[in-house]
From TrEMBL:
Signal peptide range in chain numbering: 1-16
One Gene Ontology term from the biological process aspect of the record: carbohydrate metabolic process
Residue ranges of the TM segments: 487-508
SUPFAM superfamilies the UniProt entry points to: Glycoside hydrolase/deacetylase (SSF88713)
CDD domains, per database record: CE4_CDA_like
Coiled coil start-end: none
Listed name of the protein: Chitin deacetylase
InterPro entries the record matches: CE4 (IPR052740), Glyco_hydro/deAcase_b/a-brl (IPR011330)
Organism: Collybia nuda
Keywords of the record: Membrane, Signal, Transmembrane, Transmembrane helix
Taxonomic superkingdom: Eukaryota
Length: 511
């Protein structure tokens, strides 16, 4: 049944891939009307929209950040899709790169959200049901459900990206009212080599927006004024057509240079060219903004080729051969922007270190660490999409109107305790209702190696070679041995595969 369903919906997949792409500049000097006084707007709480590195640091002393993000539902195949690009890599300090996952909750397996967060990655908000220009209940409901059923601390859910990149001035105001730290929905759509580029370093909205002025009414010209609220622009790649040839999310799906179909060689060429323009200029960040389903080799019906996966790895291999290149999450990028230091001092930046929670591997605790939580997960067998969680199944599926339903308690068992404010996720025992770590000293250990900021020979991913290689990129699946998956997981994935194709949540859309 599944292959037939996928075949029948192939035209919808093709349509979804084209949805929301940008075709040219979304900002102009005339539409901008932006003014900011850097003598009054100072870090770490305020930053003017500027093409220059923050803190007055020279470009040659500035790290080149590659921001890696993913959008939509979290499932084993989406995490594996991300891992095929990141799991084998190291940053210049020897630490594994981290990334930001903008999570929507339809078709999401909550326990994998917990696991991905505890592994050090950033979990951010993408609404509950993947709706553009979202109302408050879609934004805030996602916060509540991620906290209740995935155990993500509320103060760790700092970022938001609008589905389809469809936001309004009111969206930004809602985020500000809900105490988000940043939004990352606005495109930087003019090349950094253009004098009118809108490729600004992350900035606060104390003086309004400075991106998407031509496409989002009620923004720019000093509006909306949201003191201390950050915008992290999404930086486009540009093919040979320059400003008329931008590529934003999933650029490997786009045809380059006016061609009629995607070409991996052409994509790699313009990605390297755009990276070089950033690197040789003011070193504004550059981003790989992915929908993992479009680069999954394990999702049923996927049209991704091994050549495309190898091409993306070839780009990252090449980029990591350049000095001072770091693959980071939005959270890590923003921490550096707020507290900028030159590359010679990057060993002092705590967010770039590879601290990991220290939990006895023999302890049985449902804490987001697969070795500890085996056999302790609750299976929530809802008909349209079943999922697993450490925190007890709700009586009904979460929704914007009811993001934290009452817990259903199986006969002979007790209710599970949700994460409190005073305990970190890997140390909270939701079954026993206790925190196993009561001291700051036992919470995390810094496993990074202070080897300095340049290690060109250390940063390469080790794949290299021609990206047209037929061999799959080696990586360890995030779930480990799938033969040990909990009972019911494969039915969940099967239902999810169909649901993700036909649902309205947009997991198959470009934006």
């Amino acid at each position: 049944m599944l292959p037939a369903a996928i075949l029948a919906l192939a035209p919808l997949l093709a349509l979804a891939q084209e949805e929301g792409t940008i075709t040219g500049p979304t900002t102009s000097p005339e539409s901008l009307g932006y003014s900011c006084d850097p003598s009054k707007c100072k870090l770490p709480t305020c930053n003017c929209a500027s093409t220059s590195p923050p803190g007055g640091i020279k470009p040659s002393d500035t790290p080149q950040f590659i921001v890696f993000t993913a959008d939509d539902a979290i499932q084993s195949y989406t995490l594996d899709a991300v891992n095929q690009f990141l799991a084998h890599r190291k940053n210049p300090n020897g630490c594994a790169p981290k990334m930001t996952y903008f999570t929507s909750l339809n078709f999401t397996n909550y326990t994998l959200v917990t696991d991905w967060f505890v592994a050090g990655n950033e979990i951010a908000d993408h609404t509950m049901t993947h709706v553009g220009t979202p109302p408050a209940d879609e934004i805030n409901g996602n916060l509540i459900a991620l906290n209740a059923l995935a155990g993500i601390p509320l103060n760790k859910i700092q970022g938001f990206r609008a589905p389809f990149l469809a936001y309004s001035a009111d969206t930004l105001k809602l985020l500000y009212q809900s105490q988000f730290t940043y939004d990352s929905s606005a495109a930087a759509s003019v090349p950094v080599t253009d004098p009118t580029t809108d490729a600004y370093w992350p900035y606060t909205l104390d003086n309004g927006m400075a991106n998407n002025c031509l496409s989002v009414p009620g923004t720019c010209k000093g509006e909306p004024k949201l003191p201390g609220f950050w915008e992290i622009p999404m930086y486009s790649f540009f093919d040979n057509k320059g400003a008329a040839g931008p590529h934003l999310m999933d650029p490997w799906l786009d045809a380059a240079n006016g061609a009629t179909k995607a070409n991996d060689s052409a994509t790699l060429e313009y990605m390297q060219k755009t990276f070089t323009d950033h690197y040789n200029g003011n070193r504004q960040p550059i981003g790989l903004y992915t929908h993992p389903i479009h680069v999954s080799l394990t999702y049923p019906g996927s049209t991704t080729t091994k050549s495309t996966v190898a091409m993306i790895n070839a780009f990252l291999d090449w980029a990591q051969e350049q000095p001072n290149v770091w693959i980071v999450s939005n959270e890590q990028l923003l921490d550096w922007v707020q507290h900028p230091v030159p590359v010679s001092q990057l060993d002092s930046v705590g967010s770039l270190k590879c601290s990991t929670p220290q939990v006895d591997s023999s302890m049985k605790i449902c804490n987001g660490m697969p070795g500890n939580e085996d056999g302790l997960l609750s299976h929530c067998a809802f008909s349209d999409f079943p999922f697993y969680t450490c925190y007890g199944c709700p009586e009904v599926q979460p929704s914007p109107n009811n993001p934290n339903p009452p817990q259903q308690v199986p006969d002979g068992q007790n209710s599970r305790f949700r994460l409190p404010q005073n305990c970190s996720t890997p140390f909270w025992d939701p079954i026993g209702g206790k925190c196993i770590c009561t001291s700051d000293k036992c919470a995390f250990a810094d496993n990074s190696r202070p080897i300095g900021p340049n290690g060109v020979n250390l940063t390469g991913g080790g794949i290299g070679g021609a990206f047209t290689s037929a061999s799959a990129t080696p990586y360890v699946p995030f779930n480990g041995d799938v033969s040990t998956a909990p009972l019911g997981l494969w039915p969940a994935l099967l239902v999810g595969a169909v649901g993700a194709l036909i649902g309205s949540m947009g997991v198959l859309t470009r934006l």
